[in-house]
Structure formats: C-alpha cells, structure tokens
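Recap slide: 3-dehydroquinate dehydratase, sequence and predicted structure.
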Amino acid sequence: MKIIIINGPNLNLLGKREPEIYGSQTFEAYFELLQEKFPTLEMEYYQSNIEGELIGKIQEKGFSYDGIILNAGAYTHTSIGIGDAIKAVTTPVIEVHISNTFSRESFRHQSYISPVAKGVILGFGMKGYDLALLSLL
C-alpha cells in the first residue's frame, strides 16, 4: 500500500513554531516513528510552502497511490485550487490538522478541502496522522 503525507506552509517549522499549539517534535522525527509503527506501508513525505507545488504533488500521486494524507496548513482556508485538485484525482484524501481549527480564529473554520476529502481529522496533535493512516487501512 502506497501512501503519501503532504504538508503545507509553515509545517516545516514544526518543533520550533508555536510549540504550545503544535508541540516540540519535528515532523521528520515523527515520520520516522510512523514508518516504524507501520512497517508494511510504503510511505512518502512531502512538504512545501508553495500552493502550486502542493497541487502538483496531489496531481502526481493522485491516480497511482492508495491514499493521500493532507495537512494543507493555511491553504486549507484559502485554496480553491487545492480543493479542485483533490476533486480531480481518484486517490482518497484524508484532511489532517494538528490543532482543533474550530477552537482558533474564525477564519480557520472554513475549509476548501473538507467537502472533497474522504474524511477529516483535527485536534489530536501529531496522532492525527496515525489516525489517518489507520483509516486508509
């Protein structure tokens, strides 16, 4: 089973950025733990701060992979293009957010991804990625 985790803007700063919200662990360190926890999965990780690169990666993997786990960061609330890319591909997409976006600023309550995602997991910290992987199994 081939799965890609795609993280959007500022998630490259996990471990440094607002640790009270996002924790103190880097995503790279967490990804290693995920690989150990799910050794039978072929997993890939991709991160970009650039909207078009995220769309390109969704299109590239969205017809040949078994699942996409997407944390689009702030693009969740602004990118019709990412939503359209998800609609265009056949691979199921699970939307993940580390924080509970509904407990934060009101602009974070809107998602252009949720209506086209297979499911949404938010507010469970990094554990949300584990839950997304389990949902794809």
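The chain has a mean pLDDT of 93.
The domain at 2-136 is CATH 3.40.50.9100 (Rossmann fold).
(End of recap.)
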